[in-house]
Write a sequence for this structure.
């Protein structure tokens, strides 16, 4: 049996790294952090922090030299830097050959299409005229995306007609292209999370239903209501197949759009712990954060079974209440079973500053509990 990696370097100092740190403590793994700022969410709690630019090859190389393996809080580290790390003998998980499919939507669409995975009709378009031609073939409205750099709804546009075709090309990054996609009139969004080790062992979580508001995940329900057992089986098999064929190590999130007839298409891929898996901290035997660490450290993966029939996670977005810790007394007095994760961030309107999770036997009651707690923290209700 191989020796697991004991020192894990995490590039990125956001809330995902903060929750990875919490999961590392019980495993006895040592986390080192490359953070963008000394007061970032994860830098507040991780002991060994390097503050620096993750796009600087020298800074990344110096940070990685003290790690057994490097993983990520986000997908934005330039691919060439990761290739250089591998060339220096440092394990990168997920590796750049896999991660590029989460970094570049054009690469992702091409690869998934070659695999026969269902996706919206799509095409890389060189200019507004090409985008208009795509719209004439596939209809309006359509979706336009930048291939690189978009996140939480940024870099994505719904275009209603040819007069808006120039919008995606305004200020386009030099390393990005524009992708045109057919507009999918979906009824809901779903998410499949897979954890995979270097040798191929993989586990899959129950399918989640997600609610997106202005491109930001605001809530999830797990398991997704109304799916037939065969649909769940097929979606989980799709996630496992994508993880295997792309060689993902760690967590893979496959975001899906479901049409009225029940069919699905892949919307996005993420190769890191994902907002749609936050419920697993309190609703699964093994959280996505622990399984991500187990995977990148090459440890046997934990059970993804749920601990209750329903888990509902609601994001806490910056609202009227500035002091979130002071609000906890009211939240816990109202519901002793609610679970809260605060990210240590300044409260800014619309910013993700935490999340709450409720688990229970009844879906309607569990959903109501989660939303009530989140609204208390956002200052929408008093108690």
């Amino acid at each position: 049996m191989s020796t697991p990696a004991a020192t894990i370097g995490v590039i990125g100092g956001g809330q995902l790294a903060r929750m990875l740190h919490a999961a590392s403590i019980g495993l006895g793994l040592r986390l080192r952090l490359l953070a963008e700022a000394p007061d970032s969410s994860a830098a507040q709690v991780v002991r060994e922090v390097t503050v620096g630019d993750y796009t600087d090859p020298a800074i990344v190389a110096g940070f990685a030299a003290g790690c057994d393996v490097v993983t990520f809080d986000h997908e934005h580290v330039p691919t060439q830097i990761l290739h250089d790390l591998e060339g220096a003998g440092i394990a990168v998980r997920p590796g750049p050959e896999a991660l590029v499919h989460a970094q570049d939507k054009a690469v992702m669409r091409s690869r998934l299409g070659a695999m026969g995975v269902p996706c919206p009709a799509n095409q890389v378009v060189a200019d507004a005229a090409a985008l208009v031609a795509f719209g004439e073939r596939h209809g309006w409205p359509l979706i336009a995306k930048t291939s690189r750099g978009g996140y939480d709804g940024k870099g994505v546009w719904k275009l209603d007609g040819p007069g808006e075709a120039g919008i995606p090309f305004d200020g386009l990054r030099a390393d990005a292209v524009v992708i045109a996609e057919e507009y999918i009139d979906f009824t809901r969004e779903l998410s499949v999370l897979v954890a995979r080790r270097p040798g191929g062992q993989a586990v899959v979580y129950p399918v989640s239903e997600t609610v997106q508001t202005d491109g930001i995940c605001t809530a999830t329900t797990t398991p997704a209501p109304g799916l037939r057992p065969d649909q769940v089986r097929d979606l989980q098999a799709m996630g496992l197949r994508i993880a295997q064929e792309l060689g993902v190590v760690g967590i893979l999130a496959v975001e899906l759009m479901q049409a009225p007839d029940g069919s699905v298409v892949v919307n996005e891929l993420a190769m890191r712990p994902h907002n749609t898996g936050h419920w697993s901290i309190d609703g699964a035997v093994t959280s996505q954060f622990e399984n991500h660490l187990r995977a990148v450290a090459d440890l046997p993966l934990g059970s993804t079974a749920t601990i209750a029939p329903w888990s509902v996670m609601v994001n806490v977005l910056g609202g009227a209440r500035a002091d979130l810790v002071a609000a906890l007394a009211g939240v816990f007095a109202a519901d002793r079973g609610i679970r809260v994760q605060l990210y240590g961030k300044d409260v800014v309107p619309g910013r993700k500053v935490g999340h709450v999770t409720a688990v229970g036997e009844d879906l309607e009651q569990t959903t109501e509990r989660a939303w009530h707690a989140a609204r208390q923290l956002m200052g929408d209700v008093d108690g």
User: Anything to note?
Assistant: The domain at 7-96 is CATH 3.40.50.20 (Rossmann fold). The chain has three domains: 7-96, 121-182, 188-378. The first helix runs from residue 15 to 27. The mean pLDDT is 96.
